[in-house]
Amino acid sequence: MDELNKIIHSKTRLSILTYLYRNKEATFNELKEKLDITDGNLSINLSKLEEAKYIIINKTFLGKVPLTKCKITNEGEKAFIEYINSIEKIINEIKKINNN
Question: How far apart are CA 1 and CA 71, in angstroms?
């Protein structure tokens, strides 16, 4: 059985990567709103994804207002697809067991 990626195998980090995989980029506030999570929870999980090089975080200003944008990297897309493929393999193995 495939080993699941421990970085991605968290509800919040999986949700972040799923959103970014579909949209390629999102602001901090957009992620917070769409995923319905707190600033602190989002910040911690974004940092873990950034450390793994799955996302890039770019902090700028829009006038005087801070603007944080998150973008999925090629490495992040690859890891996300591998994670989804591993989940599909596990599901298929369970289906085989249940059909016997």
Answer: 31
Contact 22/77 with Cβ under 8 angstroms?
Answer: no
Asked whether residue 50 carries a pLDDT value surpassing 80, the answer given is: yes
pTM of the complete model? 0.90
* Other CB atoms within 10 Å distance of the CB of residue 34: 13
Q: Are 86 and 2 in contact (CB under 8 A)?
A: yes
> Which of 3, 12, 79 is CA-nearest to residue 47?
12
Burial class for 17, CB neighbours closer than 10 Å (0-12, 13-18, 19+): buried
**54/80 Cα distance (integer angstroms):** 9
Q: Which residues contact 54 (CB under 8 A, 6 or more apart)?
A: 7, 8, 17, 72, 73, 75, 76, 79, 80
CA dihedral of 7, 11, 16, 22, whole degrees rounded to 10: 110
Q: Give the pLDDT confidence score for residue 6 in this predicted structure.
A: 95
